[in-house]
Request: fold
Amino acid sequence: MSLRRWCHRCWLGLVLWLALMPFTPLMALTAQAQGPTLIFQTAQAEITVQGQTKQQQVSLPYLWDREHPAQSGWMVFELRFSLAAPPLEPYGLTIPKISNGYSVYLNGVLLDRFGDLTRHDRADAKLPRLIAVPSGALQATNVLRLMVGADVGRQGGLSTVTLAPMALARAAYTPVWRWRVLGPQMVAIFSALVGLIGLLLWLTQPAVRADGTVGHDAVYLYGSLAEFCWVFRVADSLLESPPLPLPWWSVLSALSLWGWSSLTVLFCIEVVGWGQSRRLSGMQLWLGVLGLLGLGAAVAARVYGWPPALTVWYGLLGLTFLLFSLALVWQALQRGAGINSRLLAFAILVNVLIGLVDLYQLRVNPSMDGRSSLYYSSVLFGLVAALIVLRRFSSVSRQAQHLMGNLNSLVQHKEQALSISYERLEQVAREQARSGERSRILRDMHDGVGSHISIAIQQLQSGGARGDEVLHTLRDSLDQLKLAIDAMHLPPGDITALLANLRYRLEPRLKACGIELEWAVDALEPVAGFDAGAMRQLQFMLLEAISNVMQHAQASQLRIEAQQTPQGARIGVVDNGRGFDAGQVARRGLRLMQERAQAVGVQLQIHSLAGRSVVELNLG
Reply:
């Protein structure tokens, strides 16, 4: 079932329920009761106005505001009646309207009381009453005494009174209760639900503004706040003991009607697309002026007792929204107007017309019934507003789904393009890595093997070099080549493996040179941040130090030391040769060793004395 059809069915069901509601208790009236039913339509009344009291026969219902406009006072109604015999079954009093405060006595026995009859503006009885008559309270001759206090402009007075067996009294009370109590309760619940839905949509659904920024959709907010104002207005018709003093609470109630009307106008303006019109600012200004006028009129009527002020303001409010509804209708009749505009124009026009009827019946020519039909016609606007909000949400959701689909398609396309780019980049990176590795090997061979071969060639060309010197140079070149190949497989930071590899390659040469190798290497943890390049540089530095010992030191013993330190590791190359001037050596040679140490952040220290020379490397 579509959302639109569901809303139509809900509206039809509500209308049928409200139309048939007054007739549902008719079956209860068919119940047989043994006692008589008395309906009092006249009474002997004692009316007190401004300290003046007079007695007179009055007809019921008696409406105070019609008989004594802009005044307050008290009424005492006496209803005398006789019964053939005191009834044995329980009886009840049905009073559709008795306000504003009251006390009900039967033969001097208090049956019910509401409010303080000694002061005005302390209570406002708005709901129908079903008062139980205690068993034995009725006699052959009876006096029903009703004392009623009437406030200025609050529809005070007394309706007809029905005395009947409890079953029939309840049957007469039920339709009035459904229309005056249950109906407004259902309207308030419905409006609260619509307002809550609108508020949740406003909080959770982003909207793109005309300037491209993202915010919230004002339609949801206006509709939500309008419904919440109406909940307050409807709930006030059920609330007889408000939390604030009654005059000021009545001011809030009057302003809630202005809030509902004004927010409804703003909702309509957004729906029909008048939000960018110049007339919007003028309408907003006038709505603000109406609010200030309404505050003054409500205070004058409710606090200072001048009801015409509020009546005039209600008339001005009604005229404003009548003109606005006519503008909506005119816009809805134009070619190209959408279904939302037409539904909204119809709902607003219906509510404005019913509101004007209520204004006449409740303020201009008040009646005892005091029912506001606007409470029920507002449901029409609530349903239309809910339908528009949900249609708008559905449209935005479809657009969002369409955009998400396009976005997903675009993202997939971009992912595929990125995947191809990544593959190409990986291929380029692998090629660059291979090229870099080739360059590194060539550089190492040039710096190590190439330089040693060049030295060997120079030695041979000079004719002055001994054969063992040339042989030593060529062996160094071969060791460089082997170690350069071994360095390709060394794990980053594994100093122990590097030293073991040097021992494997150089120990045979040390023995051939008559040098005893002493190994004092502890198991070392991998040094953090020591990558493959740093490992190669360290390998070259150690090879240079060991090669110098074999070639120049005339040592008989070489000690390789390695210990773990808090920063990383310490490596020492110690020999017992003839020693050398470390300062002179630094200027003449080993510059490459120092440059390599600085490049990888290794601290290089050289100490030399006759019988003990130390090359110390601190890593980390």
Remarks:
- Confidence is low (pLDDT under 50) at residues 14-34.
- The chain has 15 helices and 20 strands.
- The chain has three domains: 12-17+24-175, 177-395, 490-619.
